[in-house]
Amino acid sequence: MATFLYRLGRLSFRRRALVSAVWAAVLVALGIGALTLSGQLSDSVTIPGTESQQAIDQLQAKFPQAAAGGATARVVIAAPQGHTMTDAAGKAAVESTVASLKTAPKVSSVADPFQAKSISPDGRVALAQVSYQVKGFELTDSDRQALLDSANGAKQRGFEVEFGGDAVQAMPATGATEGLGVAVAAVVLIITFGSLLAAGIPLLTALIGVGIGMAGIMLASGSLELNSNTPVLALMIGLAVGIDYALFIVSRYRHELSIGREPEEAAGRAAGTAGSAVVFAGLTVIIALAGLTVVGIPFLGQMGIAAAATVAIAVLIALTLLPAILGFAGTRVMGGRIRLRRKTDKASHGERWARFVARHRWPVLLTALAGLVVVAIPALSMQLGLPNDSTAAPDSTQRKAYDLVSESFGAGANGPLLVVVDTGVNHDPESLKQAVAGISTLPDVAGVTPPRVNADGDTALLTVIPKSGPSSKQTEDLVAAIRSQSEALHETTGASLAVTGQTAANIDVSEKLSDAMIPYLALIVGLAFILLMLVFRSIVVPLKATLGFLGSVVATFGAVVAVFQWGWLTDLLGVASTGPIMSMLPILLIGVLFGLAMDYQVFLVTRMREEHVHGADPQEAMVTGFRHGSRVVTAAALIMISVFAGFVLAESTLIQSIGFALAFGVLVDAFVIRMTIVPAVMSLLGRHAWWLPRGLHKVLPNVDVEGEGLAKALEASDSRGSRGDDEREPARV
């Protein structure tokens, strides 16, 4: 592979105009396609096969007028002080609002508060339920604006009107604040290279890669139903790895120039050596993200595939477009140096830290492990869920509607449950009476509406109002309790029941995601062990690496719970609301952090192995390898942390939690696991760290990740001097 990448790097350097034109054409073509053929992104989270989804499918087939699965909105009308909804002004406000809602685009039905008896006990608040013919993501901005405009008449009369439900939810978006992460990454690159030109090249290639990836995702949205978080994840990962991979190759290119190589030869060697490591690192991230498809959750698999494709683009750009741009820059990447401090031996900092860790390995190791345990403690109380209006910003209309409903009707009115009763061929009305009676006796039920029956009489729909909020454990238990009555109902009447609705669907999705986390984690850990065993030809090093990865994951879970569930540091981080942790976050974090952790493991420990193979003392091999790898790993980690942390400034709590989790996870894995625990453990183990059974030694292929074989072949070719630079080709590696 190293030989192929060496030739590819030189070819891209020589044909730089053609390579650049091809990538520019791809960017323009996909951009035009995204602008003209893109579709709506979905904020719905559904999993085929769950009971809630099966019930929705049943309603759509047998009871289409119920508009099951469509968007819903809760319109809350509150009377001013001294008035009630039952006086003339209140009735007029409700009537005007309901009339406007019925004429709003795509509205299927509106439950009049007076007819539905959804007036609060004190008479000050009315609740109108709105059902749409289409899903929430199919509503346009004008559709949502028409919903909001329906309150104009009531507001003019002095009434407060707030809106909740998925029909009001806007798509998660990124803004200028997220660009701060890129700005910080630029500063890190400038400090690392001391050159504006050298710092600008990784930023340029990363932005091109992200542009291509995002355009491709938006183009795909025209024919596929994609979750609204899909481009956000791709943007985060694409920016981070795009900058980091270019950083590794540009650093190696500058090194080759500094020892007297010609620019084309330097580009080829950089692509063949650092490029090999980039390919392996990229593959680990791609496999981890694509592995999300095996957990059986379609929207999560789509997010993983989209992000993996963006990473693949970043790798291809690093191996082709980057050498081409280096061809335009030539030796100028070495010039224009910015002196930010007195010239010192930059590698000495890493060497001093490695020797300090080697001298005090037990105290350093125990301190780091104790810190991980303390940070991980909050993870024991992690509660998973999906977002609802209770997690919206306090000043948003969704949160105000949620609070008004909770105060006036009880928290459960924000998350009604839909119970579908299939009476079968008997159409026995007694089955409905028994179902209503059984549900009404459950402890957390506030009320059950009279059943609505379809035209054929074989399907009925009940609305159950819980006493507890939609994210509470009591409501989750209530859903399970209602479902448990289906078997007894079927035995006595032949009918069956199922629970659906947004709240029940969220519970099902959260349960499915929670159940998938352990198998996915096992898959990732097993994959990590095998890949690292191939790279390092050792049993102990992969075991240590995977255990360290698990430590960083658990510590990150603890930090996320402390901030987004417990509410620690919310003012400092600008987190507007707290609540259950987004159900998909743990699996996403495991997949992404695995790939990034393996990146740092490869770039840091391969040099230690190289020194050991060449006969260095184990302690000296650890120190030398750390000295060579620590600076680039530090810069790469700071760049990733900066990019991810920029998303903590987003308006959406979901995007904030993803950005924080990835930033904190990289921080822990890079600086606590890889740069503290790894050298301490390597120092403790000595040469035992590289133990590999003889049988495996013969079976395992020799994966030359850093291109050491290529370097030897080229050095041998240089010494023979039988060909010129333009004609010389390395021996096969």
Look at the structure and give the mean pLDDT.
Answer: 83
Quaternary class: single chain
Number of E-state strands: 11
List low-pLDDT spans.
340-347, 722-733
Q: For the terminal residues, how far apart are their CA atoms?
A: 7 Å
Secondary-structure-derived class: alpha+beta
Radius of gyration: 30 Å
Describe the structure.
- By secondary structure, this protein is α+β, with helices and mostly antiparallel strands.
- The chain has 25 helices and 11 strands.
- The strands form 3 sheets. Strands 6, 7, 8, 9 and 10 form a 5-stranded antiparallel sheet that branches.
- Strand 8 and strand 9 form a beta hairpin.
- The protein starts with a helix and ends in a 13-residue tail after the last helix.
Relevant terms:
733 residues, 11 strands, 7% strand, disordered C terminus, 4-stranded antiparallel β-sheet, single chain, 25 helices, alpha+beta
Précis, in short:
With 733 residues, the chain is α+β, with helices and mostly antiparallel strands.
Q: Layout of SSEs?
A:
Layout: H1 2-14, H2 16-37, H3 51-62, E1 72-78, H4 88-102, E2 107-111, E3 125-132, H5 141-149, H6 152-156, E4 160-164, H7 179-193, H8 196-220, H9 230-258, H10 263-290, H11 298-319, H12 321-329, H13 347-359, H14 361-376, E5 384-385, H15 397-409, E6 417-422, H16 429-440, E7 445-448, E8 452-453, E9 459-466, H17 473-493, E10 496-500, H18 502-536, H19 540-565, H20 570-573, E11 581-582, H21 585-613, H22 618-646, H23 653-685, H24 694-699, H25 708-720
Parallel strand pairs: 5-11
Antiparallel strand pairs: 1-3, 1-4, 2-3, 6-9, 6-10, 7-9, 8-9
Helix pairs in contact: 1-2, 1-10, 1-12, 2-8, 2-12, 7-8, 7-9, 7-22, 8-9, 8-11, 8-12, 9-10, 9-11, 9-22, 10-11, 10-21, 13-22, 14-19, 14-23, 16-17, 18-19, 18-21, 19-21, 19-23, 21-22, 21-23, 22-23
